[in-house]
Design brief:
The chain has 255 residues and is of the alpha/beta class. 34% of the residues lie in helices and 22% in strands.
């Protein structure tokens, strides 16, 4: 897809998020307001406070809103939602295409949810990140892959990926990984995104179930292709949905 290009300095570390409105959100059971900057304000301010570069891809922020809140750290890029995919899935195609365009400039990258994630510490200067250039970093949850929600969430993928049920059985007791926070060096991360988009293109397009499939595809790809490279949990993320607002030892806070 055609995405506006941005000039970055070579070696830039980038944090990206996607905010799509006007489409029913099956996770929140609502349609988000089109031009409500408050929904992304905490994310944007946390990235800017760390003096990192951040990009918010959106489809319905007004030009006035973008001009008002854009600064030397935070940029807004408008994209057109592809109706073949729900917003949770569509974002990966946006990230893939944008990163492909900017590979010569971007050194490291994180993609995160935008309305319930904030950056707490710069991950790109942390020893864990620097000492593991081949690692895929991500969030997680205090539960295992085998749980009722994931079984329901993955129905469409199970019906379209031949070895999906085998993967579910093999990794049933592994920690549930959360795609609300994912990152790594740009070369590794682009490889990851390209593989993830193939899964969604081939097995999760026009998904008519009540679930998005993003968590299912993410866990499937990481566990089957990046199992030896994945690093998750603290210090990448605080405990999911524990609302640890005073915690400062992790890179990101996820609710």
């Amino acid at each position: 897809m055609a995405i506006e290009s941005i000039q970055f300095q070579t070696g830039t570390n980038l944090v990206m998020a996607c905010h799509i409105t006007g489409v029913y959100d099956v996770n929140r059971n609502m349609t988000l307001a089109d031009d409500a900057y408050d929904l992304v304000k905490d994310w944007a301010e946390s990235v800017a406070a760390a003096n990192l570069q951040g990009v918010i891809f959106h489809n319905n922020f007004s030009d006035v809103t973008c001009r008002s809140f854009e600064n030397e750290n935070i940029r807004f890029i408008k994209v057109a939602q592809d109706p073949q995919f729900n917003p949770n899935v569509f974002r990966y195609f946006v990230y893939r295409d944008f990163l492909q365009q900017h590979m010569k400039q971007i050194e490291g990258v994180f993609i995160t949810d935008v309305t319930d994630v904030v950056l707490v510490k710069n991950p790109f200067t942390d020893a864990l990140y620097l000492n593991n250039p081949n690692a895929l970093f991500c969030g997680d949850e205090p539960k295992t892959l085998h749980n009722d929600w994931m079984l329901a969430h993955s129905e469409n993928l199970r019906n379209n990926i031949s070895d999906f049920a085998t993967y579910e059985s093999t990794y049933a007791t592994e920690t549930l990984l959360n795609c609300g926070i994912i990152g790594g060096t740009s070369t590794l991360f682009l490889d990851f995104l390209e593989q993830l988009c193939i899964i969604h293109q081939e097995a999760n397009r026009n998904n008519t179930t009540a679930y998005t499939g993003d968590m299912g595809a993410f866990n499937y790809l990481v566990r089957t292709q990046f199992q030896q490279q994945v690093i998750h949990g603290a210090p990448v993320n605080t405990v999911f949905k524990a609302y640890e607002n005073d915690r400062t030892d992790c890179w990101f806070r996820h609710k």
